[in-house]
Every structure is written in structure tokens, then in C-alpha cells.
Predict the structure.
Amino acid sequence: MRLCRALERHHLALRPRTVLNTGELKGLTIMMPKPRTDILENTLEFETLPLVKPTGFREYDARWWFNGIGHEKPAELNLEGVKALGLGMATLFHELGVEPKVVTGHDFRSISAGIKNALILGLVQGGCEVLDVGLALSPMVYWSQFELDAPCCAMVTASHNENGWTGVKMGADKPLTFGPEEMGRLKEIVLSGAFEPRAGGGHFHVDGMLDKYVEEASKGVRIKRKLKVVCACGNGTAGAFAPQALRAMGAEVIEMDCNLDNTFPKYNPNPEDTEMLHAMAAAVEEHGADVALGFDGDGDRCGVVDNTGEEIFADKIGLMLARDLSKNYENATFVVDVKSTGLYKTDPVLKENGATVDYYKTGHSYIKRRTNELGALAGFEKSGHFFFQPPIGLGYDDGIVAAGAILAMLDRNPDKTMADLKGELGVAFTSLTMSPHCDDEIKYSVIDKMVAEYEALNGMEILGRKVVDVNTVNGARVTLEDGSWVLVRASSNKPELVVVVESMASEDDMRDLFHKEVKPRLGKHAEVGAYNQEI
Ligand SMILES: [Zn+2]
């Protein structure tokens, strides 16, 4: 309202229905310029015009390289560009017809608070009521949408990416986050400069949400069993949340890198990377812990190392949780992503309890959406996103709620260790997620070629076994007659491809599936670069 009055005082020419995109003030045009994609840092243009590279708009969130100075890689986004993004989001929220009420938050990085403030300026300019909850985990922002009755959210985070990256996770229909359609429309609005500034926006700081969130996220779990838990945060944002939450659940907590340090002195907080997993394993051994729980940079993922120091991938954790939960929730549905083990299909406990398992597209947004659509009890994504529907969770991915589900499972099985519970699963040898570099602009065309190659191999043999299925819901998941499979797909948030293999036979065979099958086949494509890690 105050903004409106100020503009009126200066005789601003308003377009009908308070749309202000071509306002004039004392003969000067007031509008957000169309963002450019070709501005270099350390120039006058960089300081005055919005820069937004199109590659930052991913399938279900946004990530840009922000810090170019002193690096070879030039910046893909500047602060004016972030404002344009906020205004574009506001334009989209109005277009979607939702109440333009937005929860914002930011992760613990040196650049995040400033980027969030620029984003808020854009959102307010677009007529949004912004409720800023401050330093947050992504799930705290999702939870605040329920708590503050706000349909929309915008969380500034680069998750586990190295310093210099930034990004936004956003939604307009809680508990869901944007999918490819909304992201595509947002990209269109921002890059074409089709902004619709509106009056009526406002910005409010909401205090005390951190403590309230920690209390709520841990409320459902009170364990009776004595459990020693390593809580690993890699100096990321989760350090301000997870130790308190796990203690409230009744665990004895051993803090590991829970002090916030945005230089990330040890490694990027990513419980899917071997570096963090090895450190967690060492801590389990040192302290004789029952389990280690590791959280990523924005706390929407949880990684697990068992009491013997062995990492358990999220699909196996999901299978353990599904077996445990299916006893209390008969005929439950579980959604898992295509990177997940084939053991869900053959598990006798799930069969006995009438559980249904649905394999769906990799990506936190897809699995979340699918879990909600199917009314599934839970969805598990191989990268460590767990989605629990009521009464366990609210449908979004929350590493702390996932940690609670794991502690509750251990509590319900007081005579068994994590390793015992894992030992009850069938045997499969699954690789790490291996990611060869491949530029964003060409990664999908490389995958198209690989899908075509594998489709042509359907019914033929790979390493002496017949190809029985080529699932192309997301890249190519190629299943052999003994149940072993290989997966090649494009990463949704990095210039990389994603490779996973699983053997039902042996660890050697798992290595062969990679070294004798996928790696040489991908190697024939010149655009495919070095792997981040290999088995
Ligand atoms: Zn994350």
C-alpha cells in the first residue's frame, strides 16, 4: 500500500489492474530489463543489467555458478539477475492463480543471504507477500508453508554443490516443488523479460521458526532403546538443526562437523560422496556407535552408515524401512526411483504384507509428486531423499524426519543392529553413483543416443546374459535375465551423466558391468569426460 501511494505521489502511469510493467517516473521508464546471457564480470554491464544464463533452469530446480571472479568459469547469474528471477517467479505465481504468499529461507553459505535478499526484492516487486524464515534447511521452508499457510516457497540453496554455486528450490502447491512444466514456464518468463510487476507486495521477517521446526520435526519419535548416533553435517546448515532434533528423539548424539563453517574445510556436505561416508564410518568405529546419520547442505537428504562402518545406500535403507513399515501399514504403496535396487520386486516381507512398489523417474520433485499422486505411504530416492506422507511426515523430503524413521525402526527391532536388518535383505551388489562430465547443452542428446543403442540391444546379450527389459522412463535402465541391471541417465542439476550398475551375482560382476559394458560404451561418445568416482 505504501509503495502504491509513493508511486501515485510521483504520478506514475499505472496500467490497468495495478500491472506496472511499463511505468514512468518523471519521464524515466521503470521496468526490469530483459535479462542478458552474455554479460562478463567486472564490467559496467555486469553491475547494472541482469545476467541469467538459461542453463541454470533445471528440470525441477535452479542452479547457477555465481562466483566467477578468480575462477576460470564465468558467472552465470548476477544479483540483478536474481531480482529478475524473483520477479519472474512472482509473475508465474500469479499466472498459476495461487495466493501470492511465499516462504523464503537460505542455507549457510557466504553468498546465500545476499542472493535471497535480491530474490525477495523481485518477489515483492511482483506483488508477493514474502514471509522470510531466515537461515533454514529446505524442509524447514517446506514445513513453514504449512505452519504459515503459504502456498509458495523459495529456498536459496546450492544443496551439496561446491562453494560458488547457488540455486533456488521453489514450489506453488505444498508439499510439492516445481516440475519440468513450471520450470519451463519460469525460464520462458525470465529469459523473455515477460515480467508483470504488481503493487501490494510486502516483506516480513518471521522469528523463531528454527526452534519450532526442530521441535515439530522430531516430535513423532521418542525412542526407548539406548542408541549412540553419529550426527554428521559436513559443517553445513544441518549442523544448526540435526543434533538438537536427534537428541529430542532420545538418541545419544556424537556431533561430527556440526559447527557451521561456510568454507567447508573438510568436504562438501554430501552423504552420497565417498569422502563424507568414509569419515562417518571412521567415527562409528571410533565411538562404537549404532549408526551414523549424515545430512547434506540443505538437510533434505540423509545418508546412513551402519554399526559395522558400512554405508547403506538410500534404496536399501528404503527397503528396510518399507519392510518395517509394511507390518504396521498393510497394503501400503512405496515409490522408488529407477536408480533403486531390483530387490523391492522380489522381497518376501513386502509381498506378505501386500505392499506395492512403483519404480519412477529419478529426481526429488518427480518422486515427491508421484508419492503424493499415488497416496503412497513413502517414496525413496536413491540419492537420499525420503518422502513420508502422514502420519509420519507431510509429504516433502526431510532428512531429519528420515533420520527419525530410521531410529524408530531400530527401536521397534530392539534385538537387531542396523547391519542385522540389512543382512535380512536379499543379496545384490550395487555400485556408487558414478558421474562422468558432460556439458548441459549436449547431455540429453548423448543420452538419446545411448537409449537408442540399448533399445537396439533388447533381446540380445550383454556379458553373456540376455537383455530382458529397457526401461526408458528416465534415461535407460537395462535389465538382464538374472535381474542385474545398468542405468545411464542425464543428471538434472549438474553438467554430468549418471551411471549406476547392480549385479545379482557378485562384486566382480558388478565391476564388469561398469568396466566392460557401460564405460566403454559411453567412452565411444567424445562428449563424455572424466568420472567423479569409479568402482
Ligand atoms: Zn539437498
Summary: The pocket of zinc ion is lined by residues 159, 296, 298, 300-301 (CB under 6 Å). The CA atoms of residues 413 and 525 lie 49 Å apart.
